[in-house]
Structure formats: structure tokens, C-alpha cells
Fold this sequence. Notes:
Number of strands: 6
Low-confidence stretches: none
Mean pLDDT: 92
Radius of gyration: 23 Å
Order of helices and strands: HHHHHHHHHHHHEEEEEEHH
Shape: globular
CATH architecture of the largest domain: Orthogonal Bundle
Largest sheet: 6 strands, mixed
Structural class: alpha+beta
Distance between the termini: 56 Å
CATH class of the largest domain: Mainly Alpha
Amino acid sequence: MNTGPNAPRWNILRKALARWYASAKRDLPWRRTSEPYPVWVSEIMLQQTRVAAALPYYERFLQRFPTVESLAGAPEQELLAVWSGLGYYSRARNLQKAARQIVAAGGFPRTYEGLRELAGIGDYTAAAVASISFGLAHAVLDGNVMRVLTRLMAEPGDIQSPKTRARLAAVAREFLDQRAPAEHNQAVMELGALVCLPREPQCLLCPLAGECRARREGRAAEFPVKLRKQKKVEVDLALLVVEREGRVLVWQRGAEEGRMAGFWELPARQQLPGARELAEAGSFRHVITHHQHTVRVFRAVAKRVPAGYHWRDRKELREIPLSTIARKALRMAGVD
């Protein structure tokens, strides 16, 4: 418990946060329901993905898989095609694994512990679904929430440290409005997304500013503390767009390729040493975690194609799971 003269006045903060959320919250489709299936899908999509990027995928996903049963029974290639471009593809595979667990059990688990046992569901997602769909008093702790709490408490610890995260989890539980956990959890996340921003916190607009220790000390931008920064890796890639009679040459990743297993790719320059490059269509940058790719795209022709490559027409390209880099390259070459 946070006690003493500098401890936050939790009741005041809860009320201020609730008033702010009632007037400032965004109208997002997953906030129009408390049904566990769409809430769960949205929470998984929003991991590592901005709201604006996730919105069209969320709507398409639920149109194609409107129920947990339809998701459980879908062919994996179709699932990956719908998810293609959203990245972090293990999320899609775990969604389907969990959907099959839910169908086998006869319905969604209605406890935090039961949700936690589903594939791909960690502490945060279990707390989010438990509170939003079932009204259970479990506090969420994601990146937005940690940023709000570290500034509120002027937390000096590295947020990558398990001890620091455990302290923040305890603060989140203390702050939680037990009577309205769904609204409270969404309000803290929304505050982090709209006001308590990473580089330029909008302290003058914050309903918690009067109790925020970091703001009082003039150090809001210093939090959260993150001591270990992952080194960026630069990757140069030259991709070939080889067309023949309206079809494009692609290859498919094997089952041993981890999170990208089953996805289709364009050949790289070194994969088709006999190809003749006609013209450069352009280049683009693409970031995957700490890897920063510089991708150059070339139109090319190839007389001989090695085994394992396939010709796909444009309609098929829209229906198979293409990697995001391949989609960007095809768009740059005018093939989409």
C-alpha cells in the first residue's frame, strides 16, 4: 500500500479519471460491446499495434469470423490472409488455438484464472477481458498504464525489471475502482494513449495532474525509466517482382520458420541469381521489432525458376497470406 504524506489520494484520482473518461473517450467499435469474443479479439490486435492501424483489421476479422466457432474452424491460410499486414503473426495462431480451447470447453471461461489458461493470453489480456466482459476487479498493466503510474508515483525503477513491474502492479490494484473496473481500466489506458504521451506528456490536460509527483517535480518526460535499450539492426534487402502472363513469382515459408510459417514472399536477389533486373521500382523502410529493413524493389524477368517457387495471379495474391514487406513491394511495383 502507498501510505504517508506523499501518497496519492486514490478516491480523488478515481473520480477525476472517471469524469475525464466520460467526456474524452474515443468511440471505438470494441467499446460498444462487453461480449468477450470481440473484446478479446480487440485486445489481442492492440498488442504492439496502434488503434488506427488495428481498426480496419478488427472490422474485417469479425466480418469473416463473427463467432468463436467460426474462428476455431477456419483454415490457417485463410486466418493468416485476413491477419496479413498486422504483424506479430503468433497472435493470430494463438487466437485460433484459444478459440478451439473455448469451443472444446463449451464457452468462454468467466474467471481471470480460466482466461489466463487460454493460448496467448497473459496477465494483461486476462485482466482486460475479465473486467470489461465480466465486471471482475482485476487491474490491467500495459505500456500506457505503466507510463501513467510511473509518472504519478515518480517511480525510479527500470520498467523492464520484474521488481519494478511487481510494484506497479500493486499500485494498479490499489488505484483500481472496485465498483467500476471495466470503465476504470479503459480510462487509465485511454489517458496513456491520449494525454500521458511518451515524449510530450500533455500535463495541462491531465485529470491526475494535481496528484502527479513527476509533474510536481518538473520531470514528467523522464518517466518511465528504461535503462536497457535494444540495439537496432540494419538490414538491406533487394526484392524481385517477376511477372509472366499476369502472374507473379512467389515462394512460401516452411513450417520451421516460426512466427512467419506459411507466409508467401517475393524472391530476394540472391535467391534468383539468373534473373535479369529491368528497372528499380523504388525503395522503402520497414521496421520489425529492432530490425530496420531498407527494401529496394526491382522489376525482373527470369527464364529459369528453381523448384519451390509458384506463379500466382493478382486475385490469388489478395487471398493468400503475403508478408507485409511483400505487399509493400508489390504495391510499389504497381502490382496489387
